[in-house]
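=== RUN LOG ===
request id: a7f3
mode: sequence -> structure
chains: 1
length: 72
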Amino acid sequence: MYNVTGTHFRDIYGKFLWAEPLKEDNRLYNPGEEFILDEIKYRVERVALVENTQHVNVTVVPEDVNIVEPYL
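=== RESULT ===
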């Protein structure tokens, strides 16, 4: 069992995005899962546990765009 006390989020290039203390409602992330935060959809790419901290690399999932042909 891991004694994780916080989570650090970074982009896939390693740039720090934000950190969260681990609360009861937080959990461990798995690669491939997606979550929404502040109306932005993120996909978990990599997860590592180091010194009681969960390090999560995420990418932004682009929104679906509908391209409509103009009427001629």
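=== NOTES ===
The first strand starts at residue 6 and ends at 11.
Residues 6-57 form one domain.
=== END ===
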